[in-house]
Amino acid sequence: MSAHRRRNVALAALAAVAAGTRACDAETEQVDFKEELGTRGRGGAHQSIPPTHEPAAQALAEEVGCLANSLLGGVLIIGVDDRIGGSDALVGAQSDAAWLKARVHALTSPHYTVDIEELITDGTRLLLIDVPPALEEIRAGGKLRARVGSSCEELSGDRAREFLERRRGYDWSAEPSGSRLSHATSAALASARVKYQSAKGVAPASDLELVRRLGVLIGDGSETDPELTQAGALLLTPLDPGLEQLVVLDVLSEGRPSRHSVRGPAPLLEIFDEAWAQLTGSSFPETVTVIGAGRRLMRAIPDYALREAIVNAIMHRDYRLARSSITVHAINGMHLKVRSPGGFVSGLRADRLITAPSTPRNPALASAMRVLGLAEREGVGIDIMYEQMLRAGHPAPSITESGGEVVVTLLGGRPDVELLAYFDELAARDQSLDGVRTAMAITELFSATPLRSERLASIAQCTRVEAEQTLIALEAAGELRRLVRSGRAYTLADPTRERFHSRLRYTPRRALDQHSDLVRAFLDSHPQIGREDAASLLGVVENSASRILAELTRQGVIEPVSNARGPRVRYRLVATSTSTHAPNGVD
Predict the structure, then answer these.
(1) Are 60 and 7 within one domain?
(2) CB count, 10 Å around CB of 526?
(3) Segment 403-447, tens digit of pLDDT
(4) Are 295 and 288 in contact (CB under 8 A)?
(5) Of 171, 263, 398, 457, which has the most beta carbons under 10 Å away?
(6) Rounded CA separation 107/247 (Å)
(7) pLDDT band at 167; cut points 50, 70, 90
(8) Can you give the CATH number for the domain in which 557 is found?
(9) Which of 503, 531, 559 is the last residue of a domain?
(10) Where are the alpha helices (DSSP H) in 290-416?
């Protein structure tokens, strides 16, 4: 990302804050709002600091190091209270820009140069610190920190090692293995050939050409028996024959003895084929399901989600943890749990999995598996997994980090044929509605209503603008309706609600809750609301409207603008109630 682009992104975020968005909700992986250390007194009141306040420089140097260690860099906007929005959030920056630039350079290791711009916004002096991505890791205060989502985290232990390896381009799976092509088993080569032909249409003419196309050779492959990379050895040879790489247990419940099991060492292609046969055979058998006017073979867990869970575990596990195995529990023909050694790669969080760029721990292994058609080339496997589970009426996947392992849980069951038919019909009418955000929006409205764009942005891990585009498209398709014209709160349209009435899992809501939703939706497109507005909006007399507004004020939803008593009082939305902590990016 260029400096010009970074600045534009920062200015867009700043404009959103000035318009009322809480600064913390406008932060992204590239934009961070900060106040200088020392500008808050004990009671939280804003106070002055010297323009050469050393504690402020030390704290900001750490934030600079954090952004410098990201792939795109970013911008620190100094002089903004990130807890609120509007003009009140612009509290001002007091540090001398030239002095601060010199101190950041001195306090970072290796010394790092930033550009600092003074900016006057609504009469308030702010500082924009442009932080380009560094060519090497930057430390400040002896700490190695990196941007994770919209926050900075200190890295240590395995996370620091992985971060440094990724920064330096290290890939364990591309290293020499000591194994040769002649060590590859005939079954693994046959499996690779079948998968390659299925993915590409024509199989390579020889084993040597096959491994060359997989990119798993050391050197140019001119030798008659070339050495394989670690990825090639894992996929094709009996590397570390005493180590079980994959264990599949078919159980009635976790902790019970297995009814059937598959376990074994490398080659991974052989053990994967055995595991897949078990999972798609007796563990999750196909049944004939009638969907609309057609019949379809389906499982308790959709094929794509089942395959993606296993392939992801193989592709992303940490193979340097030599005493650990990928463990798969197929539970009572309904659920799947996969545990893969090694936590999330540095910079990845559970709440950013759907939209985060694919960053495999083992790039060479991932590349070979993509060539074989086992993994998605576009890095969209996780969001398709989510979509397939939701379309079938199942809960969204659970993907968490626990005890140094990534744990994927899929809760399946009998497919919801009516819901599947509905999503098929929707996609046939408008191909743009065939995606994970559509599935999330519709199924979320089975659990709670109304759905605001902030909430969809949070669960779909996208920007609020992207979420709003999905909701607008569903409204145009006749599936949703807005509570208030130009508002950001949506509910199921009457035909859709009637079709899925039995699936609605919420009880009738209190009148006050419904009034709160309408008032919030009104304030999406109006800066204030008064008694007359509320009476018209809610269909009540003005005295009742006053009581409702007073109760919403007591609950902290709205607050008086001025004239806190009397019939002419007007109200605005309390800043903290405008968002549900969505990952609100800047477009």
Answers:
(1) yes
(2) 15
(3) 778 999 999 999 999 999 999 999 999 998 989 999 999 999 999
(4) yes
(5) 457
(6) 49
(7) low
(8) 1.10.10.10
(9) 503
(10) 303-316, 363-371, 381-391
